[in-house]
Design brief:
Helix content: over 70%
Shape: rod-shaped
Largest sheet: none
Radius of gyration: 28 Å
Length: 194
C-alpha cells in the first residue's frame, strides 16, 4: 500500500489559547484513537488470515475430490467444484495484501522529536515548553490516526470484496451445477432419441 500523506484539518490549529489541562484532555482522547486504529488493523489481519485459512482448507478438499472423481460422468459436479475452487482462490488473492506487514503508527514519540531546540525557543507569551510539546504531540497523533485510518479503510475494502465473493459462491454454484446438469441431460437425451 502506498504511503499516505495526511493533511491536517485547519480546525486543529488552535487560535484561542487553550490551557494545559485542555491540551492534556485532547491528548488523552487522540492517544486512545491511535491505539484503537492500530488495534483495528490487527483485527483486520486476523479476519483475513482466518478467511484465507478456511478457503485454503476447502481448496485442498475440493482438489482432492476433483482428483478422485475425475470422469465425464460427474461433469456437472466437477465443473461446479472447479467454480468453487476458483472462487475461493480468488477470495484468497483479494485478501493477500491484508496479511502482508503494514506500517501502523502507535503511541509514543522518540525523545529526539520532543527534545529539539525549536520546542524551547521562540515561545509565545504565556506559552510554556510543556504546552508546546503537548500541542505538537496532539498534531502528531492526529496524523497517526489519519494514516492508520487510511490503511484500515483500504484493508476493510479488500475484506468486503472477499466477503462479497464468498457470499455469492453457494448461489452461483447451484446455478452452475443445475445448468450444466440440464445441458448434459439435454445432450444425452437429444442424442439417444435420434
Amino acid at each position: 500500500m502506498e504511503d499516505y500523506k495526511p493533511v491536517l484539518p485547519p480546525s486543529l490549529l488552535v487560535t484561542k489559547p487553550a490551557t494545559i489541562d485542555d491540551l492534556k484532555f485532547v491528548f488523552s482522547q487522540v492517544e486512545r484513537r491511535v491505539k484503537e486504529t492500530a488495534d483495528d488493523g490487527d483485527k483486520i489481519s486476523s479476519k483475513s488470515l482466518t478467511i484465507i485459512g478456511i478457503c485454503l482448507t476447502f481448496i485442498t478438499g475440493i482438489l482432492g475430490y476433483i482428483m478422485s472423481h475425475l470422469s465425464l460422468n460427474n461433469l456437472p459436479l466437477l465443473l461446479s467444484s472447479l467454480y468453487i475452487l476458483f472462487s475461493l482462490a480468488g477470495a484468497c488473492n483479494i485478501l493477500k495484501p491484508n496479511i502482508y506487514p503494514i506500517r501502523y503508527l502507535s503511541v509514543g514519540s522518540y525523545p529526539s522529536n520532543l527534545m529539539s531546540d525549536n520546542m524551547f525557543n521562540d515561545l509565545a507569551t504565556n506559552e510554556t515548553a510543556e504546552y508546546r510539546m503537548i500541542y505538537s504531540e496532539i498534531l502528531s497523533y492526529e496524523e497517526r490516526v489519519m494514516i492508520n485510518k487510511n490503511n484500515n479503510d483500504k484493508r476493510n475494502e479488500l475484506l468486503s470484496k472477499a466477503y462479497d465473493r464468498l457470499f455469492n459462491v453457494p448461489v452461483f454454484t447451484a446455478v452452475c451445477y443445475f445448468t450444466i446438469l440440464a445441458l448434459c441431460l439435454l445432450f444425452r437425451f437429444g442424442l439417444s432419441t435420434t
